[in-house]
UniProtKB/TrEMBL annotation:
GO terms for cellular component: cytoplasm; ribonucleoprotein complex; ribosome. Keywords: Ribonucleoprotein, Ribosomal protein, RNA-binding, rRNA-binding. It comes from Candidatus Sulfomarinibacter kjeldsenii. The lineage of its organism: Bacteria, Pseudomonadati, Acidobacteriota, Thermoanaerobaculia, Thermoanaerobaculales. Coiled coil: none annotated. PANTHER family: 50S RIBOSOMAL PROTEIN L21, LARGE RIBOSOMAL SUBUNIT PROTEIN BL21M. This is Large ribosomal subunit protein bL21. This protein binds to 23S rRNA in the presence of protein L20. It comes from the Bacteria.
Amino acid sequence: MTDYAIVEHGGKQYRVSPGDELLVERTQPDLKKGDNLLFEKVMLVSQGDAVRVGQPTVDGVVVRSQVVAPVRGDKIIVFKKKRRKGYKKTQGHRQDYYRVRVEAIEA
């Protein structure tokens, strides 16, 4: 059995194991490559055959990760229109992310 945890960050939940790389929303503004990012909202921890489920979080468990790179997502187009009113508005948006590597699940 592999060790894994379910963490919440930026309003989304991720299933993480040590060694995983994932994209998370940039909630802290100025982290650089090599900085540590700590996930403290851990919803579930599985270690071997033992599974601990939090209500809503598991106390005393943190997931340590390291920033691999700050990246930006693909550009999306936001288009708004009200029919028959002559109103059109086009905007673009690129979300900022951190690519992180999970180092350890500390229970």
